[in-house]
Specification:
With 255 residues, this protein is of the alpha/beta class. It is built from nine helices and seven strands, in the order αβαβαβαβαβαβαααβ. Helix 4 runs parallel beside helix 5. The radius of gyration is 17 Å and the shape is globular. Bound molecules: NADP nicotinamide-adenine-dinucleotide phosphate.
Length: 255
């Protein structure tokens, strides 16, 4: 059984991984044997996350860059090439939230959310996949979607559009790259306890809504996404492609 999920000898780049879901996934993949590359826009936060992982005995290195900056991403992959680092697994996780009624939303804020949450997955995915195809060993791409890949909420239009796009970008990747033994799937987390949701957790009304609407009657925890990520990053999922797996306590399954 364990050989199916073993990630020894693989290198995984997890974007936006100095805290929250990304950090949990980096630690989860490292625990299965992967060397992990952690990323954020802040060098100090990256250094701290790398040190934390290394202190636990895991193989980790850092990559501080803005994933929506195409030139920076291309330069970083060229540097990885020079260093002999081959990304076998990519998790496009970096994301931001911005809440405003759509009639008040400015184009620059729409664009910023789309660039960070959707376009970045294209930019980083393209650089990773080019190399996976050239190496001929296949690869794994996991794009982090959301419940909003499927259903909308008011005041988060660009986030919703981006996460819907993530689901279909994964399918576009599968359509083009399955022939190269690359599997591209999405994970759609439910409401998870991270910094991104701090304001919602601290809002008694919203907190009560989550706990009453979700059939699990609670928020999710970042580490509860690890199992699905390890499965989609491992050879256990070699014939699974273009899918989205919701890890949401059953929320999307009920009325
Ligand atoms: N929490 C939830 O309930 C939930 C539910 C569904 C989906 N998601 C998705 O899961 C992912 C992670 O969310 P989270 O809740 O863990 O958020 P978080 O705690 O706010 O962490 C976001 C991470 O992304 C990084 N980041 C943001 N913009 C970036 C950029 N342009 N370039 C590189 N890194 C960037 C942040 O680091 P820096 O700020 O230091 O750059 C941080 O490491 C997101 O895609 C989010 O949409 C979250």
């Amino acid at each position: 059984m364990s050989a199916l999920f073993d990630l020894s000898g693989r290198t995984a780049l997890i974007t936006g991984s100095v805290r929250g879901i990304g950090y949990a996934l980096a630690e989860g993949l490292a625990a299965e044997g992967a060397t992990v590359i952690v990323n954020s826009r802040q060098q100090a936060a990256v250094d701290e996350a790398v040190a934390k992982l290394q202190a636990k005995g895991y193989q980790a290195r850092g990559l501080a860059l803005d994933v929506s900056d195409e030139a920076a991403v291309i330069a970083a992959f060229e540097q990885l090439d020079q260093d002999g680092v081959e990304v076998d697994i990519l998790i496009n996780n970096a994301g931001i939230q911005f809440r405003k009624p759509m009639v008040e939303l400015e184009l620059k804020d729409w664009q910023r959310v789309i660039d960070t949450n959707l376009t970045s997955a294209f930019i980083v995915g393209k650089e990773a996949a080019k190399r996976m195809i050239a190496r001929g060993r296949g690869g794994k791409i996991i794009n982090i979607g959301s419940l909003t890949s499927e259903a909308a909420r008011p005041t988060i239009a660009p986030y919703t559009a981006a996460k819907g796009g993530i689901k279909m970008l994964s399918r576009a990747m599968a359509a083009e790259w399955a022939q190269f033994n690359i599997q591209a799937n999405s994970i759609g987390p439910g409401y998870i306890l991270t910094d991104m949701n701090e304001a919602l957790v601290n809002n008694p009304e919203f907190d009560a809504w989550v706990k009453s609407s979700n059939p699990a009657k609670r928020w999710g925890r970042p580490e509860e996404l690890i199992g699905t990520a390890v499965y989609l990053a491992s050879s256990a999922s070699n014939y699974v492609n273009g899918q989205i797996v919701y890890v949401d306590g059953g929320w999307l399954s009920v009325l």
